Amino acid sequence: MRLLFRRVAPDRLEIREGGGCMTIFGLPFFAAGVFMLLVSAGLIPVEGGDDVLTRIVLPLMGIAFTLVGGALSFGRAWTIVDGTRREVLKQWGLLVPMRSESERVDNLSAVALEFQKGDSDSADTFRVGLKARTGRHIQLCSSTQFADARSCAIAVAEMLRVDFEDATTDHPVRLMAGEVEMPLQQRLQMEGRVSGSSERPANARSNVQRERDALRITIPAPRSHPIAYLLTLIPVAIAAAFATSMHEFFRQTRTPDPVAWAFLGFFLLFFGVLPAVTALNGYLRTRRGGTIVTVSPSGIGIQERGAWRTGRMNSIPAADILDIDFSTRESAAHVARLAAEQRARDLSAARSTPIGPRTERMLKSLSRFAHADGITIKTRQGFTTFGKGLADEEISYLHALVRQALLALS
């Protein structure tokens, strides 16, 4: 949904969700539902209008389509943050508020911006919420755009006079009002030091070159398992086994040569040439490909090198870099556990029941599915990630190197 926020008063901030592309997406469903209801009511005559389909099935489908389309097209949500009363008012309705509820926010520690990874049915979202010192957190809104969600979270933090916490990656960063728009390079200069170990791990795969005014890191592409190449070459084996038999079949049936050669060419192209080229590209990518990261006083440049050529450099100015974080399997498992604990705590607060042994076992099971995302560069526009698939020690090592380079070379 579309996210809009504005100050309706010096001490009141209104957040609106809904409309935009969702309206365009929902209108066809709403129109189809209205049409079905009109047909079932007899206002639009159709042939065979007295059968079971028209009298029973069509009204039910019309109601479902109308409700879904109406909610998508006209559904709106309003969240009003009152800084003086320390209160959050949430409203829902169709174009106008129809239901509302309010909640006090006296026990706040920060306004948190969190990342919710999507799946096959939903997109990645950034959630803005009020983080309480103890008890349940309050979610305000969400957006698919990092810049919109971050601007909204900063506005709410200024309204409530609390800190802003960026928890979109594994290591949350809490900033005061005067630091939210400060680039990472400037914050590092103020701190004067960078945490983390810069000792190269024994199993490191990346190549680090220190130049006069830059740091160059070359990360090789991850190696593929030989079974992956064998699976890719299975269609090639099928094409080689059946090509001669198919040619003999066309000759015995006296199929015209243009038709026979066209069919054989199509078969060999899609079952022989394309899988073989895919396997070759994958093999060469693991031998030649990789990621080239260049850190300089002006910013960070990232290039992807494939099997045959090197892509264009993605340049990130230093003034746009808000933070550089890293994600290892250990930190990802820790974050997953904290998130599951918070969800269980919210449910426990609603049901007045403590977290039991079953929930504890569930938390341990969820931690096993955590995976490392490498190093993430946060900018005002979004995220840029590299180093995924490296060992935890090497990810921490490269993260410290990049931050030290921004501080030392600036």
Describe the overall structure:
Among the domains are: 1-76, no CATH class; 226-288. It is 43% helix and 28% strand. It has nine helices and 18 strands. The chain has helices spanning 21-40, 52-74, 146-160, 184-191, 226-252, 257-288, 329-351, 357-367, 392-409, and strands at 3-9, 12-17, 75-82, 87-94, 96-104, 108-116, 125-132, 138-143, 163-167, 173-175, 207-210, 215-220, 290-296, 299-305, 314-317, 321-327, 374-379, 383-386. Strand 3 (75-82) and strand 4 form a beta hairpin. It is flat, with a radius of gyration of 29 Å. The two termini are 40 Å apart.
List keywords for this structure.
single chain, 43% helix, 410 residues, alpha+beta, five-stranded antiparallel β-sheet
Compile the SSE list and pairings.
Layout: E1 3-9, E2 12-17, H1 21-40, H2 52-74, E3 75-82, E4 87-94, E5 96-104, E6 108-116, E7 125-132, E8 138-143, H3 146-160, E9 163-167, E10 173-175, H4 184-191, E11 207-210, E12 215-220, H5 226-252, H6 257-288, E13 290-296, E14 299-305, E15 314-317, E16 321-327, H7 329-351, H8 357-367, E17 374-379, E18 383-386, H9 392-409
Parallel strand pairs: 6-9
Antiparallel strand pairs: 1-2, 2-3, 3-4, 4-5, 6-7, 7-8, 9-10, 11-12, 12-13, 13-14, 14-15, 16-17, 17-18
